Amino acid sequence: MEPLLKNTLLLITLFFTQSLYAGQSVTFLxxxxxxxxxxxxxxxxxxxxxxxxxxxxxVKPGTMSLVSGGMEAQAKQTMDNIKATLESYNxxxxxxxxxxxxxxDIAKWPIFNEIYVTYFEGxxxxxxxxxxxxxxxxxxxxxxxxxxxx
Length: 150
Description:
Blueprint: H1 3-21, E1 26-29, H2 32-36, E2 44-47, E3 50-53, H3 70-88, E4 96-103, H4 109-116, E5 126-131, E6 141-148
Parallel strand pairs: 4-5
Antiparallel strand pairs: 1-2, 2-3, 3-6, 4-6
C-alpha cells in the first residue's frame, strides 16, 4: 500500500474511533479472579453506559479448567460466569441487551437453549449464534454479551 494512502486510511480510522467515543469514558474492567488468570484481555470494557463482556467459557471461576459434564454443565457454568461478572459490576442478567453464542456442535443448540432461558425473566436479549470449530480450551461453547447500564 502506498504511504499516502496508508496514512490517509490511518487518519480516517483515528477520526472515526475518536468520534465514536467522544465525550464517553472508556474503562477496562478486571476482577481479582480474572486478573489471576493473567490472560491478555479485559474481562469487560465500559464505554459510557455500555459494557462489553469478553467471551465466557464453562470454566471453574479463577481457573483455566473446564467443568466436567459436557454441554449441559459447560452451558450452566458459562451462564453462571456471565452472571457473576455482571454482578461484580453491580449489574444483572436483566442488563444484557445482546449475546453472541459460539457453539462447537450446533446439533447441541437445544441443550444450550434449555439452560439459557432459565437465566432471563421472560424478556430475552438480542442474540446471534454460529457453529465454531476450535474454541479455546476445547470448550463446547463460548458466549459474549453486551450489557447496558442506564
